[in-house]
Design goal:
Elements: H1 23-27, E1 33-38, H2 44-55, E2 61-66, H3 67-73, E3 80-85, H4 97-106, E4 107-116, H5 122-129, E5 132-137, E6 142-146, H6 188-191, H7 218-224, E7 232-234, E8 268-270, H8 271-274
Length: 278
């Protein structure tokens, strides 16, 4: 069973045990609920004497609990204002993460804990358990911390700001709204129809950028800064049978590869067709 002690508040015993308690903890004792935790090796007489000192501080309630019985006691949530832990010699108790988690559960918001322990992990365990404003004094093997200003397990709805939307006043009528003429946003160059040559792209890159071995004239066009139109010239037949088709054309015939045509029909060949070696 847990050791539960309640002492009369009018009793005053002069002892310097309270001198080791931080002033912030002493200021919270009046009308507060205090939990005193003690461990193995501590003298029961020292625990009782210290509890009587606390009663002189006009605490509303003082509960003395052994470390091994704290979790089994199943205290309600948020009932203690101050927790004084392992302050009696020889300070053998260890504040494990499970123990600190139970302490933070039964403490009120903005509660204060003061304890003693020589450990390098006490600060990390206090943070993981949920304490804040942690102060560790290695020279005195003591620590103090506070609980947050919200209940353990509490939740709050997040308010996300609504996006700003441009809107016109409902009091305005159409005649009072000044609109921009969309035609004023265009100049003379925007109204000109582009020439087909300026829209030409490279067949290799698919962009208006000449490839390395450009042979379509796009490189010259981009270098000159203006479209280059393909030059054409008339071709004359030396054998007189070019119009009949490829079967009647010689190996160097400029019409090679073209369909047959009527005699005397004017056929225009590009510069590339007239110069196949380029």
């Amino acid at each position: 069973m847990s050791l539960l002690c309640q002492f009369p508040m009018s009793q005053l015993l002069k002892n310097m045990s309270l001198a080791t308690i931080p002033s912030e903890a002493l200021n919270r004792l009046k009308d507060g609920t205090v939990l005193v935790l003690w461990g193995a090796g501590s003298s029961p007489e020292d625990v009782q004497r210290f509890s009587q000192e606390l009663s002189a501080q006009k605490c509303s309630r003082i509960i003395v609990e052994h470390f091994e019985r704290l979790i089994l006691s199943n205290h309600p949530n948020s009932i203690f204002d101050v927790v004084l832990s392992n302050i009696f010699e020889p300070h053998t108790a260890k504040h494990s993460f499970e123990l600190l988690s139970e302490i933070v559960r039964i403490m009120k918001t903005n509660g204060f804990i003061f304890g003693k322990e020589k450990s390098d992990r006490i600060s990390a365990d206090l943070k993981l358990a949920g304490f804040c404003n942690i102060i560790v004094e290695p020279s005195e093997n003591s620590f103090s911390a506070q609980t947050p200003n919200f209940e353990v397990g509490s939740s709050s709805r997040l308010a996300f700001a609504k996006p700003t939307v441009w809107s016109l006043s409902d009091n305005l009528v159409d005649d009072q709204i000044e609109l921009i003429n969309e035609d004023d946003l265009l100049d003379e160059n925007d109204l000109k129809k582009p020439e087909a040559e300026t829209l030409r792209v490279c067949g290799t890159t698919g962009k208006r950028k000449a490839c390395k071995d450009c042979s379509c004239g796009l490189a010259e066009e981009l270098e000159a800064g203006q479209p280059v139109k393909p030059t054409t010239k008339s071709a004359t037949s030396s054998c007189g049978s070019c119009y009949l088709g490829d079967a009647f054309r010689c190996a160097s015939c400029p019409y090679l590869g073209m369909p047959a045509f009527k005699p005397g029909e004017k056929i225009q060949l590009s510069e590339r067709q007239l110069n196949p070696d380029l």
